[in-house]
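User: I've been trying to design a sequence by hand for this structure and keep getting stuck. Would you show me what you'd pick, starting by listing the structure so we're on the same page?

Assistant: Good idea, let's start from the same input. This is the structure you sent:
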C-alpha cells in the first residue's frame, strides 16, 4: 500500500514517533536489504536523536548476500549495529532481542550493580511503508498482531507485546517517509514495489532496473531471458531498450506489426525480478 506523503503527514508521523520514543529504550530501524540507503528515512538521525538503535536489514532472502555483507561493514564503520534478517522465514530475527541487550548493556549492568532488577527492554520498530514492519512484529510476537499496511493517522490503543522474557515491543510501528529528493531513490523503491507503478512510469522503472542488472547481474539476466548481446555502453539508452525488447520478445509481448509491447515486457520483467526469479539481487551497493 502506498501512502501519499504531504508535509502535514510527515510532521504528524514525526510527532507520533517522538511521542513513542518517550516510552521505549531501543529503536529497531527496519530497512530493505536490497536498497539499504534508499529505504531509510532522510531525517532518521534527527528524529531518533540519542536513542540506542539497531539497523535491521529485512528481506535479506531477496538480496545479494555478498552485497549485504558489504552493507553490514558499511554500517559498522558508521558506528551502527546492522544485521540481515528475513522476517518472512524468521531467519536472523532471534538476534534482535540479543542485540537490544547488547546495546543497553551498560545501563542494565548499572541497574544490577545498584541491586535493581532490570525490567524488560522496551522496543519500537520504525521504517518506511512496505519494508516489512507488520511481518516482523507478527514474527516477534509469534502470532498475528498488526494489520499489514498500517497507515499513519489510524490510531488505536497501543499495547506491549512480550518477546521472550527480556523484551517488549510496541504493537504499532513508527511509519516514516522515504527520501524524495533523489530520483534514483524513487526508481529503486519502485523496482522493489515499495512505490506503485502508477506513480512512476512502469517503462521508466523497468529501464532503470534493466540498466542496473545488465551492469551488475548480467549472467542472471542472460540466463533467464536467453539474452545474447550485453550492452557495451550502459549510458546509451538505445542499448538498454534493445535488452528490454529482447526480454519482451522472449516473453511473447508482440503487438500487431511485430512491434514489441514494452509496457507489458516491463511489467513482466519487474514481476519476475520482485518474485526472486532472477535470483538474489541487490539494487544498491555501498561502494
Ligand atoms: P509494512 O508493515 O512495513 O508496510 O510491511 P508488511 O509487513 O506489510 O510487508 C510488506 C510486504 O513485504 C508483504 O508482502 C510481506 O509479506 C513482504 N515481506 C515482509 N518481510 C519479508 C521478508 O523478509 N522477505 C520477503 N521476501 N518478503 C517480506 P505483500 O506482497 O504485501 O503481501 P503478502 O505477499 O505477504 O501477501
Amino acid at each position: 500500500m502506498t501512502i501519499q506523503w504531504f508535509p502535514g503527514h510527515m510532521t504528524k508521523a514525526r510527532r507520533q514517533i517522538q511521542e513513542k520514543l518517550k516510552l521505549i529504550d531501543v529503536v529497531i530501524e527496519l530497512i530493505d536489504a536490497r536498497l539499504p540507503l534508499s529505504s531509510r528515512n532522510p531525517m532518521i538521525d534527527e528524529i531518533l536523536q540519542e536513542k540506542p538503535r539497531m539497523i535491521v536489514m529485512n528481506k535479506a532472502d531477496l538480496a545479494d548476500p555478498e552485497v549485504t555483507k558489504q552493507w553490514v561493514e558499511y554500517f559498522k564503520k558508521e558506528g551502527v549495529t546492522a544485521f540481515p534478517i528475513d522476517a518472512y522465514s524468521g531467519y536472523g530475527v532471534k538476534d534482535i532481542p540479543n542485540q537490544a541487550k547488547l546495546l543497553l548493556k551498560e545501563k542494565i549492568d548499572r541497574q544490577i550493580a545498584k541491586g535493581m532488577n532490570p525490567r524488560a527492554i522496551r522496543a519500537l520498530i520504525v521504517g518506511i511503508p512496505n519494508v516489512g514492519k507488520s511481518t516482523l512484529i507478527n514474527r516477534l510476537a509469534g502470532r498475528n498482531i498488526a494489520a499489514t499496511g498500517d497507515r499513519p493517522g489510524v490510531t488505536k490503543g497501543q499495547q506491549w507485546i512480550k518477546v521472550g522474557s527480556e523484551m517488549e515491543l510496541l504493537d504499532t510501528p513508527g511509519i516514516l517517509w522515504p527520501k524524495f529528493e533523489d530520483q534514483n531513490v524513487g526508481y529503486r523503491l519502485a523496482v522493489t514495489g515499495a512505490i506503485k507503478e502508477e506513480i512512476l512510469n512502469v517503462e521508466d522503472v523497468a529501464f532503470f532496473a534493466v540498466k542496473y542488472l545488465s551492469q551488475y547481474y548480467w549472467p542472471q539476466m542472460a540466463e533467464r531471458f536467453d539474452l545474447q548481446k550485453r550492452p557495451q555502453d550502459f549510458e546509451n539508452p538505445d542499448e538498454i531498450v534493445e535488452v528490454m525488447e529482447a526480454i519482451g520478445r522472449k516473453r511473447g509481448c508482440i503487438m500487431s506489426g511485430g512491434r514489441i509491447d514494452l509496457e507489458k515486457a516491463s511489467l513482466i520483467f519487474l514481476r519476475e525480478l520482485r518474485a526472486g526469479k532472477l535470483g538474489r539481487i541487490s539494487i544498491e551497493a555501498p561502494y
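That's my pick for every position. To get oriented when you compare it with your attempt: The first strand starts at residue 26 and ends at 32. The pocket of guanosine-5',3'-tetraphosphate is lined by residues 58-59, 61-62, 86-88, 127, 129-135, 148-150 (CB under 6 Å).
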